[in-house]
Amino acid sequence: MLTTFFLETIIAGAFYDSFSSQYEGHHFLPNIRQESEKGRLSDLRDELLSKLLEEENLRVGTPHIGSTFIRDRLCQKKVLLVLDDVNDVRQFQHLIEVPLIGAGSVVVVTSRDKQVLKNVADEIYEVEELNSHEALQLFSLNAFKGNHPPKAYMELSITAINYAKGNPLALQVLGSYLFDKGRHFWESQLNEIESFPELNIYDLLRIGFDTQRDNNTKSIFLDIACFFRGHQVDFVKRILYGCGFKTDIGFRVLIDRGLLKISDDKVEMHDLLQEMALEVVRKESLDELGRQSRLWSPKDVYQVLTNNLVRFIYTKVFLFICNAIWMS
Amino acid sequence: MQYGCPSKFKILLKLCFSFTGFQGTGKVEGIFLDVSKIREIELSSTSLERMYKLRLLNIYNSEAGVKCRVHHPHGLESLSKELRYLHWDGYPLTSLPRKFYPENLVELNLSSSKVKQLWRGDQVL
Q: B47–A304: do the CB atoms touch at under 8 Å?
């Protein structure tokens, strides 16, 4: 079983691609945490069974696989299964009943939560950070579109990868941000990073975001992070274009900067980038939710949509008192 | 004294705004609410009406089996002129607000709503 912090999906994907042909049935289920939040776990299980048993549109409908016909057929199959980004043991239990799959089957689970893996896995594999050589290579791929930095940029590149601390996402974002920029720009940006009091990954990721000069791209990024992650790209573009944003250029810039990606016609971004974006929105108002531009958490929306009446009365009372003071 | 008055007025005005949050929800541009996470909500009379910058409103139910209720006892007088995306599963009222500006709308989805008539009177589309 596998666990990593950043590269888990890529490694699990590579494993799946290399070995899936050796199994009678195989399937890769990405983004389980996200799908589970959308209430789609049962759909995922049906998809999984359909794939493993090579039967279209299999519907189980019940929490447990009751049909003995399905159970018998599953038992005879040696399968390879990848469950990506599981953050709750119940998701695992809902998707697959391990005793049901045939001997020699392998289930690979990726998770950020070691506790989850301890509960479901026989073996845990922790992925290490990139070493400095790999980090330099990944950074150069993004910053210079080559495997090595040009000599003149070697020192600056090493400074940059030291800031990223072997984190692949940070290397990518920082590299794409500095791509095609002059030496002077590199120096000023790296100096700025150095001036951060406590450099953490969010600060580093914000670099690419904060320096977007146009609000167009920023707004698109924040809308997607708050609302449209995982939605069809055409749909998202249509809505945002309707909002008056220049979606073609905005999407292109965000993709070039490594802040956004399109996979399977869906708009996707890295969890950490989303978290960074949500933090940007939260910081718009520390004291009052209504001053935030975007609301997504049920608790916050509930508060904003229900308490305005109270505030309205307060306003009236306050205005009345002000008026009284003013008159006196 | 001549200059005192306007500044006193300004301070009072500023106080009003900051203390009461009068401008409060005017900043909100987007709301996505999964009602299955809260089950029941009674909307206040002015909450949505005062969000005059609202572009995106999506009230949805991610769990088909879970019953959720959105009450709107005071009715809905208006929705933002800026609204581009309106998705409301189980919209609780029988018609859209009286002041509703569909000309900017890109997508309207009111599945399982109680709407009988989109709006009263004429509406320019």
A: yes
